[in-house]
Amino acid sequence: MIGLVIATHSNLAQELINAAEMIIGPARNVKAVCIRKEDSVETIRSGVIEAIATVGGDGEGVVVMTDMFGGTPANISLSLLEPKKIEVLTGVNLPMVLKFFNSQEGLSLFELAAMLKAYGQQSISLASEFLQN
Predict the structure, then answer these.
(1) What stretch of H or E contains 7?
(2) What's the CA gap between 112 and 95, in Å, rounded?
(3) What positions does the domain PTS EIIA type-4 occupy (predicted)?
């Protein structure tokens, strides 16, 4: 089973998991890495590595979702990128997290990550555009 690590500034990662579990129930094979202002780069890196090891134990791979490209969670996660083992997606949102839990079986790590990227982008809407049509 492909694992999921969500790494973000502050408590966003844990809150995304909490929100997903409110909707779908208990989630398996997921870890949050919540980065604080006072955390050192090495502390953060160790936390991400430990989370990847925890959810990726069966060898099917791990998707790491981070809050924004260019931020510390993304930069550290990108340094761990390993094709076919670790994929990194930036711009995490709740629809992406929910889709992960509904789609993690039967797809390769790359196929899943690519599908989650597209789904996350499709989940962004400008409500007034619906009223104009």
Answers:
(1) strand 3-9
(2) 14
(3) 1-124
